[in-house]
Amino acid sequence: MSSITLYDFPLSGNCHKVRLLLSMLEIDHERVTIDVVANQTASPQFKRINPRGQVPFLVDGEVRIWDSMAILIYLARRYGTTRWLPDEPTAEALVMQWLAVAGDELLYGLARARAVWRLGRPFNREQCQQEGRGGLSLMEQRLAQADWLAAEHVTIADIACYPYVALADEAGVTLEPYPAVREWLARVEALPGWVPLIEREDEGG
Question: Residue 46: is it exposed, middle or buried by C-beta count within 10 angstroms (0-12/13-18/19+)?
Fold first, then answer.
């Protein structure tokens, strides 16, 4: 049995980031679904596992890590190669720049705009959409000149930014003005080990 357990919510883009990297690195793991809609993250049982009360949450033997970005960094360093997360200072900083975009414009923009529709969250959807478009514009500028966000090949920067961009339609944001972003989405989805947000097993067969 695998020593790695991912506490996961299938509809979460942040959880999807982790599932993508686990699959692309061919890491055997067990998934435990935590129902965010039913507020299981706030249950005493889950809080004993993760005091922060959020998913994704990764357990690897004695190692316990919350936050999708931290988990991506851990998996890349522990099980990947420096192609996923360079250790040269400038190259590493370029990856971290895009992790910041994923955790700012894309999270507070596209993810929250989606959460208004998908989960009934009380955010200002128009404001979130505007912030999301700012992140998409940054990505478009970069991807109009390069295939990948932080290097000449895929890194965890691309994995971190992918899910909520791929779900932009659920945020009410069209990707029509961003052709380079759309081409990048297709490149990510062509990578070995790519898995969709919802897999057949999650849909009941």
Answer: buried
Q: What is the CA radius of gyration of the chain?
A: 17
DSSP 155-202: -HHHHHHHHHHHTGGGGT---TT-HHHHHHHHHHHTSTT---SS-TTT
What do you get for the CA distance between the two ends of the chain, in Å? 23
Long-range contacts, stretch 38-42, CB < 8 angstroms, 24+ apart: none
pLDDT digits (tens, 9 = 90+) for 45-63: 999 999 999 999 999 999 9
pLDDT score of 1 more than 90: no
Sheet strand arrangement including 4-8: 30-33, 4-8, 57-60, 63-66
In 3D space, the residue among 19, 109, 14 whose CA is nearest the CA of residue 69 turns out to be 14
Going by C-alpha positions, the residue among 178, 171, 61, 48 that lies closest to residue 110 is 171
